[in-house]
Amino acid sequence: MRYIPILLIFVILFSSCGTTYYYGMFDSNDPYIEKDAKENFVVNGDDVKLTFSFSGEDAQSDITVENKTNRKLYVNWENSWLYIGDGDNNKIKLSSYMNSKERQMVLDSGAIKKQHILEFSNLGLELIDYNNADSLMLKKNKVAATQSTLFTEDDTPLYIRYVIEMSFDKKGEEPYIFEEDFYISKVTKAPGIKPKKIASLNPKEGNTFYVKKDNNPKIKQTAYIASVLGATVGLVTFQIISIQSGNSWW
Question: Bridge partners of 104?
């Protein structure tokens, strides 16, 4: 008689006793990008103005397009991309995060439209080595001790590049390509310090975001059943980076 052994793996996650907040800041070395008064990233061309923001929880990525001409402008999200890291291999099509009605944005003369693209989660900010002492000014004139790390474009935990295609004809036969890159330049680890407590943090600023992590999530018990047949071995791999369903990446 042949037996099929069943491997049961139980994962226990212990109860939570607090939350750690990670405050991140985006930056860019792109010479064509400027910042406005709200710390949004702005590309101001003769015909088109693009505004990029990464604000709020999990870095909500929004792109605002302004048509500065007297012609109709067509933004082709179907042929626009987000690249993760260096190179061209790790990319996603922006239209995959939109419904069919959003896959082409049409702007009349002088129109301004904002498009939510996605949000970033599971960035692994808790894995960073925080060795630099820092502080955050809280409301009511209090100061909290924190830890932070600065990054360059070469060692950042997240480097992204947007490639946006648009045209002034509906068929897109003569497209304009906008290519802009961004990276996380600073992360601050702040155990138990919520965004609303920080005096200097404006959650609507385009370059500032936060991620919250439970130190010890509530007890959960999960059984992983792996069938082992013959010489086949089941392996359980935990991935730090994964594509998630819905409007989320990482």
Answer: 76
Q: Which of 24, 47, 52 shows the shortest CA–CA distance to 36?
A: 52
Q: How many residues does the chain have?
A: 250
Amino acid, res. 200: S
- What residues have CB less than 8 Å from 231, skipping those under 6 apart? none
Question: For residue 173, what is the DSSP state?
Answer: S
According to DSSP, residue 59 is labeled T
pLDDT in tens, the chain (250 residues): 444 343 333 333 343 348 999 999 999 999 999 999 999 999 999 999 999 999 999 999 999 999 999 999 999 999 999 999 887 778 999 988 777 677 889 999 999 999 999 898 889 999 999 988 998 888 878 898 999 999 999 999 999 999 999 999 888 788 999 999 999 999 999 999 998 888 776 656 899 999 999 876 554 433 333 333 333 333 333 333 333 334 444 4
Spatial distance between the Cα atoms of 175 and 234, rounded to a whole number of angstroms: 49
The tokens for 61 are 């990525």
- The tokens describing 36, both together, are 């406005």
DSSP 92-103: EEGGGGS-GGGS
Lookup result for tokens 């991140």 = 24
Q: Give 154's DSSP letter.
A: T
Contact (CB, 8 A) for 34 and 238: no
3-state secondary structure of 91: strand
What is the number of other CB atoms lying within 10 angstroms of the CB of residue 57?
14
User: CA-to-CA distance for 239 and 77, rounded, in angstroms?
Assistant: 29
Q: Is 18 left (phi over 0), alpha (psi -120 to 50) or beta?
A: left
Structure token pair of residue 161: 């590049």
